[in-house]
Design goal:
homodimer; 327 residues; alpha/beta; Rossmann fold; two-stranded antiparallel sheet; 10 helices; 14 strands
Chain lengths: 327, 327
């Protein structure tokens, strides 16, 4: 081997090394959650128990970015968790997957997402005569369907919560340590709305910021963990990311840029105001639009997104197996 | 009358006028909600129907401050709405009040606050044999109590939601137009966590802020609407505000300063980490501590806060009536 090539190898290795160091340095300055070990154990047991199935990690809801160490105020991302919680239900209903649902505390969850606590409570009546509690008869059919689905699928569902950006990032990284064992059988469906900005803890106010004068805040960029995730943490998995914009004109170009930059398989692009009716599934070479009329037909677009990505994941597995067998 | 006095009068009048103009200018630049008329009508009818009772307006939950006009990101205030929703329940249980509950959409509500949607759903079982839905027997006693209270009190409860700071401020002002008619029979219990900072709409990004570089945000101070509220909007009402700090050392002095500045009756001061176990009720002349051990005794401090302020409101009404009769 010529010395030129060997020199090139070293450069490449050192650039990979730099990238790993950078992401480690970023994590090192964040506040590490105390429950990572127990999450890893739980997730490991869950995956082991379901290893005859494909495994999906679905992330859901927005991350918070605290403005104070004793946090009263924070920056949040708009997301109720509809995309992630609905997709989890549909994915479980295929019968092919066990799902780890990593979601923002108090955002929507599978099954219970169909009603607010108040709506549900309003369907329960206390009967003074019998001193019993009954469910409104008009509500029973819907509730019965949901409870049925829940019963049939919930042992293939593991729920884990986050609130802050740090909690999300640390937990995501920890889960990939477990998921990496399952290679191409793993799908990551990263629907959470993760903040692009944060305030490094050393720049943060300790106490509630006083309101004696106007406030200037300086946010740093959050490094894109999608890159180390695809490259180092779960290199064999089928990774899907989401892109939400309010300006449709930049949406597709941003989706394609993300694919080139991070090297994953699929970006699901959506625009804030039409996100329940239209998404575009973008790969490096083509794009496919899914459109529904969610108001008119009382359907959820997540049903069709899930059908589509399940097929893509299966094609990916088949392709990987074919490649492996020819080697 | 000497011309000096007349000059002084004019100065005073013009300072009041300036204050009113300033607050009007602040409101004028905010986005006005479209449903204020219907809120006013609904609140008017509700108060009329309950005019044999005292009326309370309880505000609850945090306000959001959008960072973009097409809002993906926003600043939020830590508050689940526990204080406001629990206090509403206890106040309704006295039988003396009708309550307008002005709360952050999706924050805790009276009655349903006792469980998350998931907890409630987990207590309902579908029985495949009978195809019926039943409530867990261990859960029935608690649920029965809550449904009983709900049934007995909910016709004295009017719920109105807000999300953004603008929605909160406009709705609050609109409601005071209705409440002012009821004079000292009205109590305002302002437990909502209202942002002190905002980004004026003309300084706001139109679309989702791009994450190509670090972000600097400049927030302006929100003028304290408590001042016009006490002085002009409901001058005869019994007004209680809340003060939350993370630094106990400045809490009481800030509470007292607020009373001097805004001229209302009572500040309930609490510290972030101990807020479920200790509050200090601060007036211009004295202070009173309420302390419970919420963990040990399974009690809610709101029960005692409500008992205390109901008595204070009654004393206030008696005093006002005595003053009126001697004039």
């Amino acid at each position: 081997m010529a010395s030129g090539t060997s020199h090139l190898m070293t450069q490449r290795q050192s650039s990979v090394f730099d990238e790993l160091v950078q992401i480690d340095e970023f994590f090192a300055q964040l506040q590490k959650p105390s429950n990572l070990d127990s999450i890893r154990t739980k997730a490991g047991e869950f995956c082991k128990r379901n290893e005859h199935l494909k495994i999906a990690l679905i992330t859901s809801g927005g991350t918070t970015v605290p403005m104070e160490l004793n946090t009263v105020r924070f920056v949040d991302n708009f997301s109720a968790g509809t995309r992630g919680s609905a997709s989890t239900e549909y994915l479980l209903q295929t019968g092919q997957y066990a799902v780890i649902f990593l979601y923002r505390s108090k955002s929507l969850e599978p099954y219970s997402r169909h009603f607010s606590p108040d709506e549900l409570l309003n369907q329960l009546q206390w009967e003074p005569e019998t001193d019993d509690i009954t469910v409104s008869s008009s509500f029973k059919p819907k509730l019965r369907e949901i409870l049925k689905h829940k019963k049939e699928t919930e042992d293939r569902l593991l729920k884990i919560t986050f609130t802050t950006l740090s909690e999300y990032l640390f937990t995501l990284r920890e889960l990939t340590l477990v998921l990496n064992e399952f290679g191409s059988n793993t799908m990551l469906y990263l629907a959470a709305a993760v903040s692009d900005f944060y305030i490094p803890p050393e720049n943060m106010a300790i106490h509630k910021i006083q309101s004696s004068e106007p406030l200037r805040l300086h946010f740093e960029l959050v490094p894109k963990v999608l890159r180390p995730l695809v490259k180092f943490w779960v290199p064999d998995a089928f990774v899907i990311s989401f892109k939400l914009e309010t300006d449709e004109n930049i949406l597709l170009s941003k989706a394609r840029k993300a694919l080139t930059k991070y090297g994953h398989k699929l970006v699901i692009a959506n625009e804030l105001n039409t996100r329940k009716d239209k998404v575009t599934l973008v790969t490096e070479t083509d794009s496919e639009v899914i459109k529904v009329d969610s108001q008119l037909n009382n359907v959820e677009i997540e049903k069709f997104i899930v059908e589509n990505v399940v097929q893509r994941h299966q094609d990916f597995i088949t392709q990987v197996e074919a490649e492996t067998s020819t080697h």
